[in-house]
Amino acid sequence: MAIRSLIKGAEAACGTNAAGASTFGSATIVRVVNTGTTVRVVNVITEVGGSAVGSFSLPGGAVEHIEKQSAHAIYAASDEVRGCQVGYSQ
């Protein structure tokens, strides 16, 4: 059976620094999409303005689902990266 994304919030541009990061409504799963054509680095931090948990490169046009703790926040190297709180549905 295919797993589908259950949309739980409005899509928004990711902040571009730790102070502008978002928890996306304390989401534990966030769908991110790079709407641009350039590879962008996506960062997960312990909280808004906090320290690094990890990061990855997101190619242009790519979509990824990030599983994180509810307090963790996300920011990216460009506001072309957009995020949305999601869950999974079967």
Describe, in plain words, how this protein is organized in 3D.
By secondary structure, the chain is mainly beta. It has a single domain (4-89), classed as Jelly Rolls. The protein is 0% helix and 48% strand. The protein is built from no helices and eight strands. The protein has strands at 4-7, 12-13, 29-34, 40-45, 52-58, 63-67, 73-76, 81-89. The strands form two sheets. Strands 1, 2, 3, 6 and 8 form a five-stranded antiparallel beta sheet that branches. Strands 5-4-7 form a three-stranded antiparallel beta sheet, with no helix packed on it. The mean pLDDT is 95.
Record the SSE blueprint.
Elements: E1 4-7, E2 12-13, E3 29-34, E4 40-45, E5 52-58, E6 63-67, E7 73-76, E8 81-89
Antiparallel strand pairs: 1-8, 2-8, 3-6, 3-8, 4-5, 4-7
What key phrases describe this protein's structure?
90 residues, mainly beta, Jelly Rolls, three-stranded antiparallel beta sheet
Task: Give the total of beta strands.
Answer: 8
Question: How many individual helices?
Answer: 0
CATH-scheme architecture: Sandwich
Tell me the CATH topology: Jelly Rolls
Estimated helix fraction: under 10%
Span of the ends, CA to CA? 7 Å
Uncertain runs are none
Biggest sheet statistics: 5 strands, antiparallel
SSE topology string: EEEEEEEE
- What value does the Rg take, in angstroms? 12 Å
Helix and strand composition category: mainly beta
Sum up the overall morphology in one term.
Answer: globular
